[in-house]
Amino acid sequence: MTLRVVVVDDHPVFRLGMVALLRSLPSVEVVGEASGEADAVAVCERERPDVVVMDLDLGPGGSGVEATRRIVRAEAGAVLVMTMLGDDDSLFASIRAGARGYVLKGALPPDVERAVRAVAAGELLLGPEVAHRAATYLTGARTRGAVPFPELTDREREVLDLVARGHDNPAIARRLVLSAKTVRNYVYGILVKLDVPDRSQLIVRAREGGLGVDVPPS
Question: What residue ranges of the chain have pLDDT lower than 50?
Fold first, then answer.
Protein backbone atom coordinates (compact mmCIF):
# COMPACT_ATOMS: atom_id res chain seq x y z
CA MET A 1 0.00 0.00 0.00
CA THR A 2 1.34 3.42 -0.97
CA LEU A 3 1.21 6.11 1.71
CA ARG A 4 0.03 9.47 0.38
CA VAL A 5 1.65 12.44 2.15
CA VAL A 6 1.25 16.23 2.12
CA VAL A 7 4.10 18.44 3.41
CA VAL A 8 3.26 21.80 5.04
CA ASP A 9 6.11 24.19 5.86
CA ASP A 10 6.66 27.88 5.12
CA HIS A 11 10.42 27.44 4.78
CA PRO A 12 11.00 26.43 1.13
CA VAL A 13 14.42 24.84 1.67
CA PHE A 14 13.19 22.61 4.49
CA ARG A 15 9.99 21.77 2.60
CA LEU A 16 11.92 20.75 -0.52
CA GLY A 17 14.29 18.65 1.57
CA MET A 18 11.42 16.88 3.33
CA VAL A 19 9.67 16.21 0.03
CA ALA A 20 12.89 14.73 -1.40
CA LEU A 21 13.37 12.53 1.68
CA LEU A 22 9.80 11.22 1.60
CA ARG A 23 9.97 10.52 -2.13
CA SER A 24 13.08 8.43 -1.55
CA LEU A 25 11.18 6.09 0.77
CA PRO A 26 9.54 2.93 -0.58
CA SER A 27 5.76 3.05 -0.99
CA VAL A 28 5.52 6.76 -0.10
CA GLU A 29 4.06 9.32 -2.50
CA VAL A 30 4.05 13.09 -1.88
CA VAL A 31 0.72 14.29 -3.27
CA GLY A 32 0.86 17.94 -2.23
CA GLU A 33 2.74 20.81 -0.61
CA ALA A 34 1.66 23.98 1.18
CA SER A 35 3.33 26.91 2.90
CA GLY A 36 0.39 28.41 4.82
CA GLU A 37 -2.65 27.49 6.87
CA ALA A 38 -5.35 28.09 4.25
CA ASP A 39 -3.37 26.34 1.50
CA ALA A 40 -2.69 23.39 3.80
CA VAL A 41 -6.36 22.87 4.56
CA ALA A 42 -7.33 23.24 0.89
CA VAL A 43 -4.70 20.77 -0.33
CA CYS A 44 -5.61 18.21 2.31
CA GLU A 45 -9.34 18.48 1.66
CA ARG A 46 -8.64 17.96 -2.05
CA GLU A 47 -6.07 15.15 -1.82
CA ARG A 48 -7.20 13.37 1.38
CA PRO A 49 -3.66 12.16 2.22
CA ASP A 50 -2.83 9.45 4.72
CA VAL A 51 -0.38 11.72 6.57
CA VAL A 52 0.19 15.48 6.76
CA VAL A 53 3.70 16.55 7.84
CA MET A 54 2.93 19.85 9.55
CA ASP A 55 5.15 22.71 10.70
CA LEU A 56 3.70 24.87 13.50
CA ASP A 57 5.03 28.30 12.51
CA LEU A 58 3.45 29.08 9.15
CA GLY A 59 4.35 32.75 8.90
CA PRO A 60 2.14 35.82 9.36
CA GLY A 61 -1.48 34.89 10.04
CA GLY A 62 -0.76 31.19 9.89
CA SER A 63 -0.99 28.65 12.68
CA GLY A 64 0.04 25.03 12.32
CA VAL A 65 -2.05 24.18 15.37
CA GLU A 66 -5.16 25.72 13.83
CA ALA A 67 -4.40 24.08 10.47
CA THR A 68 -4.12 20.75 12.30
CA ARG A 69 -7.46 21.31 14.03
CA ARG A 70 -9.20 22.15 10.75
CA ILE A 71 -7.68 19.19 8.88
CA VAL A 72 -8.59 16.75 11.65
CA ARG A 73 -12.15 18.07 11.86
CA ALA A 74 -12.49 17.61 8.10
CA GLU A 75 -11.05 14.09 8.39
CA ALA A 76 -8.58 15.13 5.71
CA GLY A 77 -5.46 13.38 7.01
CA ALA A 78 -3.57 12.25 10.10
CA VAL A 79 -1.20 15.01 11.21
CA LEU A 80 2.45 14.50 12.12
CA VAL A 81 3.85 17.74 13.54
CA MET A 82 7.49 18.37 12.63
CA THR A 83 8.78 21.57 14.18
CA MET A 84 11.66 23.42 15.79
CA LEU A 85 9.37 24.16 18.78
CA GLY A 86 10.08 21.69 21.56
CA ASP A 87 8.23 23.51 24.36
CA ASP A 88 5.36 21.98 26.34
CA ASP A 89 2.78 24.51 25.14
CA SER A 90 3.37 23.72 21.47
CA LEU A 91 3.37 19.98 22.12
CA PHE A 92 0.12 19.85 24.09
CA ALA A 93 -1.68 22.39 21.90
CA SER A 94 -0.85 20.19 18.90
CA ILE A 95 -2.11 17.04 20.59
CA ARG A 96 -5.29 18.79 21.70
CA ALA A 97 -5.81 19.90 18.11
CA GLY A 98 -5.70 16.26 17.04
CA ALA A 99 -2.09 15.67 15.92
CA ARG A 100 -1.09 12.00 15.97
CA GLY A 101 2.65 12.59 16.13
CA TYR A 102 5.18 15.21 17.22
CA VAL A 103 8.87 15.16 16.31
CA LEU A 104 11.52 17.85 16.15
CA LYS A 105 13.17 18.93 12.91
CA GLY A 106 16.50 17.54 14.03
CA ALA A 107 15.14 13.98 13.70
CA LEU A 108 17.19 11.59 11.58
CA PRO A 109 15.73 10.20 8.33
CA PRO A 110 15.00 6.74 9.82
CA ASP A 111 13.10 8.44 12.67
CA VAL A 112 11.10 10.51 10.18
CA GLU A 113 10.17 7.40 8.22
CA ARG A 114 9.19 5.58 11.41
CA ALA A 115 7.03 8.51 12.50
CA VAL A 116 5.24 8.82 9.14
CA ARG A 117 4.45 5.11 9.01
CA ALA A 118 3.35 5.00 12.65
CA VAL A 119 0.95 7.93 12.23
CA ALA A 120 -0.42 6.40 9.03
CA ALA A 121 -1.09 3.20 11.00
CA GLY A 122 -3.12 5.12 13.57
CA GLU A 123 -0.50 5.19 16.32
CA LEU A 124 0.32 8.16 18.53
CA LEU A 125 4.04 8.81 18.20
CA LEU A 126 6.13 11.32 20.11
CA GLY A 127 9.79 11.90 19.38
CA PRO A 128 12.21 10.88 22.14
CA GLU A 129 12.92 14.54 22.96
CA VAL A 130 9.31 15.19 23.98
CA ALA A 131 7.93 11.80 25.07
CA HIS A 132 9.29 12.02 28.61
CA ARG A 133 7.81 15.48 29.18
CA ALA A 134 4.45 14.33 27.86
CA ALA A 135 4.41 11.37 30.24
CA THR A 136 5.35 13.59 33.17
CA TYR A 137 2.65 16.10 32.26
CA LEU A 138 -0.08 13.48 31.89
CA THR A 139 0.89 11.79 35.15
CA GLY A 140 0.87 15.09 37.01
CA ALA A 141 -2.48 16.05 35.49
CA ARG A 142 -4.18 13.32 37.51
CA THR A 143 -3.25 15.04 40.75
CA ARG A 144 -4.01 18.63 39.78
CA GLY A 145 -6.95 20.48 41.16
CA ALA A 146 -9.51 22.19 38.98
CA VAL A 147 -8.10 25.00 36.86
CA PRO A 148 -9.94 27.64 34.86
CA PHE A 149 -10.27 26.90 31.16
CA PRO A 150 -8.71 23.40 31.24
CA GLU A 151 -8.71 23.32 27.44
CA LEU A 152 -5.88 25.89 27.50
CA THR A 153 -2.22 25.16 28.15
CA ASP A 154 -0.50 26.69 31.17
CA ARG A 155 1.17 29.27 28.92
CA GLU A 156 -2.13 30.16 27.25
CA ARG A 157 -3.71 30.72 30.67
CA GLU A 158 -0.77 32.93 31.59
CA VAL A 159 -1.27 34.99 28.43
CA LEU A 160 -5.04 35.13 29.01
CA ASP A 161 -4.53 36.34 32.57
CA LEU A 162 -2.44 39.24 31.29
CA VAL A 163 -4.98 40.01 28.56
CA ALA A 164 -7.69 40.09 31.23
CA ARG A 165 -5.58 42.57 33.21
CA GLY A 166 -5.65 44.95 30.25
CA HIS A 167 -2.14 44.43 28.86
CA ASP A 168 -1.68 44.72 25.10
CA ASN A 169 0.39 42.24 23.07
CA PRO A 170 3.70 44.17 23.21
CA ALA A 171 3.39 44.49 27.00
CA ILE A 172 2.63 40.78 27.35
CA ALA A 173 5.61 39.97 25.13
CA ARG A 174 7.90 42.01 27.40
CA ARG A 175 6.48 40.43 30.58
CA LEU A 176 6.85 36.86 29.31
CA VAL A 177 10.03 37.43 27.27
CA LEU A 178 8.35 36.34 24.04
CA SER A 179 8.15 37.86 20.58
CA ALA A 180 5.10 39.94 19.73
CA LYS A 181 4.32 37.45 16.95
CA THR A 182 4.31 34.57 19.41
CA VAL A 183 1.95 36.42 21.73
CA ARG A 184 -0.33 37.25 18.81
CA ASN A 185 -0.46 33.57 17.88
CA TYR A 186 -1.27 32.63 21.48
CA VAL A 187 -4.11 35.15 21.63
CA TYR A 188 -5.51 33.92 18.33
CA GLY A 189 -5.38 30.32 19.53
CA ILE A 190 -7.14 31.25 22.78
CA LEU A 191 -9.92 33.04 20.88
CA VAL A 192 -10.44 29.93 18.75
CA LYS A 193 -10.37 27.47 21.66
CA LEU A 194 -12.81 29.50 23.77
CA ASP A 195 -14.97 30.37 20.74
CA VAL A 196 -14.87 34.09 21.55
CA PRO A 197 -15.16 36.61 18.67
CA ASP A 198 -12.90 39.43 19.88
CA ARG A 199 -10.49 40.62 22.55
CA SER A 200 -13.03 42.65 24.55
CA GLN A 201 -15.33 39.67 24.98
CA LEU A 202 -12.31 37.52 25.74
CA ILE A 203 -11.49 39.80 28.69
CA VAL A 204 -15.04 39.46 30.00
CA ARG A 205 -14.93 35.67 29.64
CA ALA A 206 -11.53 35.45 31.35
CA ARG A 207 -12.62 37.57 34.32
CA GLU A 208 -15.81 35.55 34.69
CA GLY A 209 -13.57 32.48 34.89
CA GLY A 210 -11.41 34.00 37.61
CA LEU A 211 -8.44 35.22 35.57
CA GLY A 212 -7.21 38.79 35.57
CA VAL A 213 -8.50 39.46 39.07
CA ASP A 214 -6.66 39.27 42.37
CA VAL A 215 -8.30 37.07 44.95
CA PRO A 216 -7.89 38.61 48.43
CA PRO A 217 -6.22 36.37 51.00
CA SER A 218 -8.62 34.55 53.30
Answer: 141-145, 215-218
Three-state DSSP at 189 gives helix
> Which residues neighbour 6 within 8 Å (Cβ) at sequence distance 6 or greater?
30, 31, 32, 33, 34, 40, 43, 44, 47, 49, 51, 52, 53, 77
Instruction: Determine the Cα angle at 83 with ends 117 and 198, to 5°.
Output: 115
Q: Give pTM, 2 decimals.
A: 0.63
- Exposure of 178 by Cβ count < 10 A (0-12 exposed, 13-18 middle, 19+ buried)? middle
Dihedral angle, C-alpha 107, 20, 39, 169, nearest 10 °: 30
Model confidence pLDDT, tens digit, residues 43-100:
999 999 999 999 988 877 678 889 999 999 999 999 999 988 766 777 878 888 889 9
Q: Is the dihedral of CA 15, 21, 24, 25 positive or negative?
A: negative
CA pair distance 169, 187, nearest whole angstrom? 9
- Residue 22 structural domain: 3-137
End-to-end CA distance of the chain: 64
Q: Is 178 found in the same domain as 126? A: no
State how many domains the chain has: 2
